[in-house]
Design goal:
With 136 residues, this protein is mainly α. Helix content is 65%, strand content 0%. Helix 1 packs across helix 3. The chain starts with 22 loop residues before the first helix and ends with a helix. The relative contact order is 0.15.
Length: 136
């Protein structure tokens, strides 16, 4: 055994990791803001017909993204493409702004930063695809 070998069992979570139990409150709090936002609310309220199901699916998404649980089985790109002509670049900025506020409010700094960085990368990819669809 080398001096740098580490046993994983019983180790504290990395400071950037979110706990599974934190995800439902995070998702609900964030989408409460989105639903009531003057810019985002109309689009989301039109697109989402069952908020409980949507929040559960988004919880599965973040669990899969941040904890590698594999629970999310959807295609976020395809879902956004259904609404591409209504989505503006400013909406992505607003969405990320609300995400930053919510994650900063509810999570430790390093965890919030990790989720913010991941959300920014995801948003950039979807934003680029939406821009292509919207200009066709």
């Amino acid at each position: 055994m080398h001096g740098y070998d580490v046993k994983l069992a019983g180790m504290a979570r990395p400071e950037t990791a979110i706990e599974e139990a934190e995800i439902p409150l995070l998702v609900r709090s964030f989408y409460d803001r989105v639903r009531n936002d003057a810019m985002l609310g109309p689009l989301f309220n039109d697109a989402v017909h069952d908020w409980d199901e949507h929040l559960a699916r988004i919880g599965d998404f973040w669990s899969s993204v941040m904890l590698s649980t594999g629970r999310y089985k959807g295609n976020p790109m395809a879902m956004h493409m259904l609404h591409a002509r209504r989505i503006t670049p400013e909406m992505f900025d607003r969405w990320l702004g609300l995400w930053v506020i919510t994650t900063d409010e509810l999570l430790p700094r390093h965890t919030a930063s990790a989720l913010q960085a991941k959300a920014t990368r995801i948003a950039e990819n979807i934003k680029a695809a939406v821009r292509i669809i919207a200009t066709q």
